Amino acid sequence: MTTFPTARAVRTTPEGLLWEPSERWVRGRTGDTTVVDSRHPVLVWEPALPVPQYAFPREEVREDLLRPAKNPPMGAHSGSRIFYDLEVDGELLENAAWTFPADDLAGHIAFEWFRRSGKGLDHWYEEEEEIFIHPRDPHKRVDAIPSSRHVRVEIAGTVVADTRRPVLLFETGLPVRYYIPGEDVRLDLLVPTEHGTGCPYKGTAEYWSWRDGAGVPPHVVWSYPDPLPAVGVIKGLLAFYNEAVDITVDGERLERPVTPFTKALST
Fold first, then answer.
1. How many Cα atoms are found within 13 Å in the side-chain-facing hemisphere of 147?
2. How many domains does the chain have?
3. What does each C-alpha distance from 171 to 96, 111, 137 come to in angstroms?
4. Same domain flag for 189 and 103
5. pLDDT reading at 50 higher than 90
6. CB of 238 within 8 A of CB of 185?
7. Do both 252 and 229 map to the same domain?
8. Rounded CA separation 16/13 (Å)
9. Which of 131, 160, 183 lies at the terminal end of a domain, its last residue?
10. What is the average per-residue pLDDT within 186-213?
11. pLDDT of 200 strictly over 70
12. Are 209 and 93 in the same domain?
């Protein structure tokens, strides 16, 4: 029988994992089959990953759907001890689940999220709200605040946006993002793309590229047409990667920050 921790404190394992109990009711499904139904999940942070993952007590997982992995990956998920394939309605999802190599997390199983890794469970819920990509980090804040600052954006020396009514989005660990009304953006200089991303804090984004292309990474502008309620004020506004454009705020040009997105934008 698994012992359910109750203290709300982050713990560290000898293997370098951080973990913390959560009081959220979490469910994970593939198709119409509920594979996880847990009221005692734990959040786990791996050393090489900036976002948390959930792990669940075995008794709150459909273990009858798990099979020992036929081709377990080497060195994945902090050198996890055991990997499982998931079989649902005759379909086998390889390496969809695993156990962490830590005594503290013995008796818990973690799962891949399809919209993050391209495999695993494809629908996740906290209480009655569907969540995407990965669990939300309880130690991270995302605040979207309307402002009257003067924000000007230049791409390759051309002013592409100029506004005094931005919404500033403050997200722990990232630079401020400046969301600008479409009326204050030179949309004629941008080209919509097929690219899209999902964020557990903001929703699903659509993207634009710089029309001239040369020297500017693709998908440099994005917008959330239907954001999550907590950041509803950014609905339909456009933001630019500070890492790849020049932004001036109240007359002060900002330095281009180095972030986890910098490398991807330079390739």
1. 19
2. 2
3. 30, 26, 11
4. no
5. no
6. yes
7. yes
8. 5
9. 131
10. 94
11. yes
12. no
